[in-house]
C-alpha cells in the first residue's frame, strides 16, 4: 500500500494515475460505431425531443433559452450533464404546469415519517417548555435563604404543586414543573440542610454553563456561596423559552430527520403532513444475469438488483418492486405499460445492441423522450422519458458504474422534485491529484475525502464498482480534466453524508 492508499484508509487505491486513458478511447470508438449504425434513427419521439431542443424551445431553469451547441460528432442527441440534471429536476413540475411536488400531502404517524418531506410548516402546537420547569435536581426556593424545606418533594410528571411562600423551599427533580412563586432552583450540590432542617446555599465551584439554555447567573450576580442568595430565575426553564404555541419551527420542504421527529413530538404532534414517497418500480434487464452463486458460462451476477433499491430509498423513493425482465421486446413492453409506479427505472438495454429494447419500446409506447443521452462518462446512453401523464421512465445503462452515473444525473433530481425535497447545496473541494478528462464530456469519478482534499480513486471504469464502493463522493470532472489542487464539484454519496442507518430507511 503506498502513502496515498494508506491515507485513503480502506485499502483502495487512490488514482495516482487517475484513469486508464484507453477507457476513454474505447468509449469514443464505441460511440462512433454506434452513430454509424443509426442511433439517430427516424424515431418520431426522439425526433420530437431532438427538434424541440434544437429549436431552442426548451428554456433552462431560469427561463432562458440555452445557446445552440455545436453538433457533436458522436452523439447529436446528448444534453450536457448540467442541462440533463435541470431537465430531470423540472420534468415532474413541467408536465402538469405545477410548481411543487405533484402528490397530495398525506398525514403519517411519527413512527413512519422518517425520510419524508414536510408538506406544511411545522408549527408549535404548544409552548416549549409547556410550563416553567426545573433545569436541575435540587430545591425550588422562594426569596433569599435560608429556607424552610417542605416535606413532600416535586417530581417530573406531576400536577402543579401548591405555591411556595417567601423563605420556603421544596425538593425538586429535573424536568418537574416549579411551584408558583418559585424564584430560583438551587442545585443539590449547592445546598445543605442544617440540623433544624433549614436549607442554606453553600460555597460552590463556579457554575457550569446552565442547562436551561440561559446563563445560569445574570452578569453581576455573585455565585452561590455561604450566606449568599441564588440569582433570580437561576436553573428555571421558563415556559415558552424555546417557542410559543403557533410559532413556525420548520418550513415546508424540510426533510424529516430523527431530530425533526423529536422536535415534532415535543411540539405536540402525533402525525405529520408529508409528501408521499414517489413509487419506483425497478426493471432489471439482461438474460446474462444471475441472482446467486458464481459467474459461469458467460453469465454474471446482477449487481444492480441489490444496489438500487436501498439507494433509491435514500433518494426519497419507495421501491414497489424489483422485476427481472428477459431480453425480449414484448416482455419489456408489457412490464412498462402495466406498471402503475410514478417512476419506472430500467437497467441495461439503453444502447443499440441486438437485444437493447429500451428505445424501440419507448417509441412503441409513444413516450416523450426528455433526455436521450448525456455528455457524461460513464453512462452517456442514459435516458429519461415521460411514458404517460405522471409517469416517468429513467433508463440506466447496464454497466454498473454507468448506472450509478445515471442514478445521480437523472433519477436523483427527478425523485427529489417528486418527493418535494430541497436540492442539496452544491460544494467543491480541491482534488489532490490531476484527473484526466474526456475531451467533450463531464466525468464522474469516485473520490474519498481526506482532510480538506478529495482523492480520486482507481477502478472507475464503467463496468466497475470497486472505486465507488470505497468512495465518499463522486467528483464532477469537467471536459478536459482537472489539475492537482483544482476546486471541483462533489456529489455526496448518501452513506457518507448521512450514515447508513439514517438514510437507508
Ligand atoms: N455500439 C455501441 N455500443 C455501446 C455503446 C455505444 O455507444 N455504442 N455504449 C456503451 C456504453 S458507454 C454503455 S454504458 C453500454 C450501455 O449498454 P446498455 O445500457 O445497453 O446495457 P447492456 O448492454 O444491457 O449492458 C452493458 C453491460 O453491463 C452489464 N450489465 C447489465 N446489467 C447488469 C447488472 N444488472 N449487473 C451487472 N452488470 C450488468 C452487461 O452484462 C454488459 O456487460 O453500452 C456500451 N455499448
Ligand atoms: O461510458 Mo458507458 O456510458 O461505458 O458507461
Automatic annotation (TrEMBL):
A single Gene Ontology MF term assigned here is: metal ion binding
Query: What Pfam families does the annotation carry?
Result: MoCF_biosynth, MoeA_C, MoeA_N
A biological process (GO) of this protein is: Mo-molybdopterin cofactor biosynthetic process
Q: What is this protein called?
A: Molybdopterin molybdenumtransferase
Catalytic activity from the UniProt record: adenylyl-molybdopterin + molybdate = Mo-molybdopterin + AMP + H(+)
CDD domains, from UniProt?
MoeA
Region Disordered, residue ranges: 1-107, 159-244
Where along the chain is composition biased (Low complexity)? 201-215
**Superkingdom of origin organism:** Bacteria
Keyword annotations of the record:
Magnesium, Metal-binding, Molybdenum, Molybdenum cofactor biosynthesis, Transferase
Q: Which family does it belong to?
A: Belongs to the MoeA family.
Which residue ranges have biased composition labelled Basic and acidic residues? 45-78, 187-198, 234-244
Q: What class of enzyme is it?
A: transferase
- Species of the source: Streptomyces prasinopilosus
Amino acid at each position: 500500500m503506498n502513502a496515498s492508499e494508506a491515507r485513503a484508509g480502506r485499502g483502495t487505491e487512490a488514482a495516482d494515475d487517475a484513469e486508464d486513458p484507453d477507457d476513454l478511447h474505447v468509449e469514443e470508438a464505441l460511440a462512433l460505431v454506434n452513430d454509424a449504425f443509426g442511433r439517430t434513427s427516424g424515431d418520431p419521439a426522439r425526433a420530437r425531443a431532438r427538434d424541440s431542443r434544437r429549436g431552442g424551445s426548451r428554456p433552462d431553469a431560469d427561463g432562458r433559452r440555452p445557446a445552440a451547441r455545436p453538433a457533436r460528432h458522436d452523439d447529436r442527441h446528448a444534453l450536457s450533464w448540467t442541462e440533463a440534471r435541470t431537465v430531470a429536476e423540472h420534468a415532474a413540475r413541467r408536465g402538469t404546469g405545477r410548481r411543487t411536488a405533484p402528490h397530495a400531502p398525506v398525514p403519517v404517524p411519527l413512527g413512519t415519517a422518517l425520510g419524508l418531506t414536510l408538506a406544511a410548516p411545522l408549527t408549535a402546537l404548544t409552548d416549549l417548555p409547556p410550563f416553567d420547569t426545573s433545569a436541575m435536581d435540587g430545591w425550588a426556593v422562594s426569596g433569599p435563604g435560608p429556607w424552610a424545606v417542605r416535606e413532600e418533594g416535586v417530581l417530573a410528571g406531576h400536577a402543579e404543586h401548591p405555591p411556595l411562600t417567601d423563605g420556603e423551599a421544596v425538593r425538586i427533580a429535573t424536568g418537574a414543573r416549579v411551584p408558583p412563586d418559585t424564584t430560583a432552583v438551587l442545585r443539590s450540590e449547592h445546598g445543605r440542610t442544617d440540623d433544624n432542617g433549614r436549607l442554606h446555599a453553600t460555597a460552590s465551584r463556579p457554575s457550569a454553563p446552565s442547562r436551561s439554555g440561559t446563563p445560569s447567573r445574570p452578569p453581576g450576580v455573585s455565585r452561590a456561596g455561604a450566606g449568599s442568595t441564588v440569582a433570580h430565575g437561576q436553573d428555571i426553564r421558563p415556559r415558552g423559552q424555546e417557542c410559543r404555541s403557533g410559532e413556525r419551527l420548520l418550513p415546508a420542504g424540510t426533510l424529516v430527520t430523527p431530530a425533526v421527529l423529536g422536535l415534532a413530538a415535543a411540539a405536540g404532534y402525533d402525525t405529520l403532513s408529508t409528501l408521499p414517497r414517489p413509487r419506483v418500480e425497478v426493471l432489471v434487464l439482461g438474460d446474462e444475469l444471475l441472482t446467486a452463486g458464481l459467474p459461469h458460462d458467460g453469465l454474471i451476477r446482477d449487481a444492480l438488483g441489490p444496489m438500487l433499491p436501498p439507494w433509491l430509498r435514500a433518494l426519497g423513493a419507495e421501491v414497489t418492486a424489483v422485476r427481472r425482465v428477459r431480453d425480449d421486446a414484448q416482455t419489456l413492453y408489457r412490464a412498462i405499460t402495466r406498471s402503475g409506479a410514478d417512476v419506472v427505472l430500467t437497467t441495461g438495454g439503453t444502447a443499440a445492441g441486438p437485444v437493447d429494447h429500451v428505445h424501440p419500446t419507448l417509441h412503441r409506447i409513444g413516450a416523450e423522450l426528455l433526455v436521450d443521452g448525456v455528455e457524461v462518462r460513464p453512462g452517456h446512453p442514459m435516458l429519461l422519458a415521460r411514458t404517460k401523464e405522471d409517469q416517468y421512465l429513467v433508463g440506466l445503462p447496464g454497466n454498473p458504474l454507468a448506472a450509478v452515473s445515471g442514478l445521480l444525473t437523472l433519477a436523483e433530481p427527478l425523485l427529489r422534485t417528486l418527493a418535494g425535497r430541497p436540492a442539496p447545496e452544491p460544494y467543491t473541494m480541491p482534488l489532490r491529484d490531476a484527473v484526466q478528462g474526456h475531451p467533450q464530456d463531464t466525468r464522474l469519478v469516485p473520490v474519498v475525502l481526506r482532510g480538506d482534499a478529495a482523492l480520486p480513486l482507481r477502478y472507475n471504469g464503467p463496468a466497475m464498482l470497486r472505486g465507488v464502493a470505497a468512495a465518499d463522493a463522486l467528483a464532477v470532472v469537467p471536459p478536459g480534466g482537472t489539475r492537482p489542487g483544482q476546486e471541483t464539484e462533489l456529489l455526496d454519496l448518501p452513506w457518507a453524508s448521512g450514515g447508513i442507518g439514517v438514510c437507508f430507511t
